[in-house]
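step: validate -> pass
step: tokenize input -> pass
step: predict -> running
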Amino acid sequence: MSDAQYQAGLELRRAMFGPGGVDQQIEAATEFTAPMQEMVTRLCFGEVWHRDPLDRRTRSMLTIAMLVALGKPNQIRVHVRGAIANGVSNEEIREILLHGMVYCGVPASVDAFLAAGETLRDMGLE
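step: predict -> pass
step: emit ->
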């Protein structure tokens, strides 16, 4: 896979989540999961995350909010790391989660707080 969108997506994934985790995910992909990894890299990070006018910081905040709404704590853990890499502060993450509590419901927000807090502690930021 050498096209420009895939390469741009791979670079962005590495910048946000670290090269080790991204490369490990891609290398560990099976015949079954490889198309998913390619689509995530090309479509999500190679195309959507590079579109104007939203910058990476804004997209990170939106992504966390959407993951709260969907109740996806495992993905919140991943995207809190990416948000920190994209310049989102702990305080801004907290406010996104509080905002989500009102609009997405208390149970979704409590799970999001637990996942984000655990990740921030693991990163030595709380």
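step: describe -> The chain has two domains: 4-50, 56-122.
step: cleanup -> pass
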